[in-house]
Automatic annotation (TrEMBL):
Species for this entry: Nicotiana tabacum
Keyword Nucleotide-binding: no
Protein name: RHOMBOID-like protein 10, chloroplastic isoform X2
Transmembrane segments: 130-148, 207-225, 231-249
Membership in a protein family: Belongs to the peptidase S54 family.
Main localization of the protein described in the UniProt heading: membrane
Compartmental location: Membrane
Basic residues: bias regions: 7-17
GO terms assigned for molecular function: serine-type endopeptidase activity
Length: 335
């Protein structure tokens, strides 16, 4: 989504710290892979796969019936014809896929895969359960979109005029809808690349809150700053990118080489935004909202591991010092 004063012609989206007993590593990370996940895997490198994958793409490819319905809804709801976006969208999508398949991107992704533990590489690993659930939801919702001739798309898309009428569910449902099969596949590929690593370092509960909050933040910023209707999971995926950036910043004193990771993340974010500015069919405001939302949630909920002490056996004792625990403890002390 971009921000325009008038409706665009072709734009779219889309407490005291808790002490942990030995072993001294986060419960969802083993001692053998804590540093591997945080450093050797250089999860930032998986962000290469998100340069375009996390973009909301405005395209409509469900056939004549859907186009007819979409046309009627557009005229009624927004006053301009979304079908006019198609040409620019297809051009942008082809460019994105060419970049996506570049040799460098494949090499970076393979390096990330090699550095991950066996369990995290397995698609059915419990360590990536929620990533799989979100992937399945995106696919099932898309099947429902096609089965209903696009009615589900119109029921859940981010359409400002209908949100103004109280249809607030659109702020979350729009992130599980996709414009066409290409849009769905690109976002699923990105989620599958970024999600498992972030889920591993965050833990399942934080990961769910992170993903859903990023989705809402993405839609909310797009609602405030863009008039264009939008659908797509890319805002939530960029929230995962923002979360990983916060994780790297927090643990730069514990893990070597984080300066390079941070530079890489910054480059990816800048490139994503630059591509969005150059393509009218991309929702930059939605991307920015998701990125900020994910970073904010990660800052508040953690993890924020710090070495609290060294045991008599020389083992390090970690504590999660995320601000949420201090807030909870303060409220308990007052009550």
């Amino acid at each position: 989504m971009g921000s325009h004063n008038q409706p665009p012609h072709h734009q779219r989206r889309r407490s005291p710290p808790r002490r942990l007993p030995p072993p001294p590593y986060p419960p969802h990370l083993s001692s053998s892979n804590f540093y591997q996940v945080a450093r050797n895997s250089r999860n930032a490198k998986i962000l290469t796969t998100t340069l375009v994958a996390v973009q909301h793409i405005y395209c409509h490819g469900h056939g004549p019936k859907l186009k007819d319905v979409w046309h009627k809804w557009t005229v009624h709801v927004t006053g301009f014809n979304i079908l006019q976006w198609s040409q620019d969208v297809l051009s942008g999508a082809h460019t994105n896929l060419l970049f996506f398949n570049a040799d460098e991107s494949r090499r970076e992704f393979k390096q990330f895969q090699k550095s991950s533990s066996k369990s995290s590489r397995s698609f059915f690993s419990s360590e990536r359960k929620w990533t799989n659930i979100f992937l399945a939801l995106n696919i099932l919702v898309y099947i429902a979109q096609v089965a209903t001739d696009g009615k589900l798309l119109f029921w859940g898309a981010k359409i400002n005029s209908l949100i103004n009428k109280g249809q607030l569910w659109r702020l979350i449902t729009s992130s599980f809808l996709h414009a066409n099969i290409g849009h769905l596949l690109v976002n699923c590929y990105s989620l599958n690349s970024v999600g498992p690593g972030v889920e591993k370092i965050s833990g399942p509960r934080r990961y769910v809150v992170l993903y859903l909050t990023s989705a809402i933040a993405s839609s909310a910023m797009s609602y405030w700053l863009s008039k264009a209707p939008a659908v797509g999971a890319s805002g939530a995926i960029l929230g995962l990118v923002g979360s990983f950036a916060v994780f790297v910043l927090r643990h730069r004193g514990m893990v070597k080489g984080t300066e390079g990771d941070l530079r890489y993340i910054a480059n990816v974010i800048v490139l994503n935004m630059a591509i969005g500015l150059l393509n009218k069919g991309i929702d930059n405001w939605g991307h920015l909202g998701g990125l900020i939302g994910g970073g904010a949630v990660s800052w508040l909920l953690g993890p924020a591991w710090k070495i609290q002490s060294i045991s008599s056996e020389g083992r390090r004792v970690f504590a999660d010092t995320a601000p949420i625990f201090s807030i909870i403890q303060t409220k308990r002390d007052k009550s």
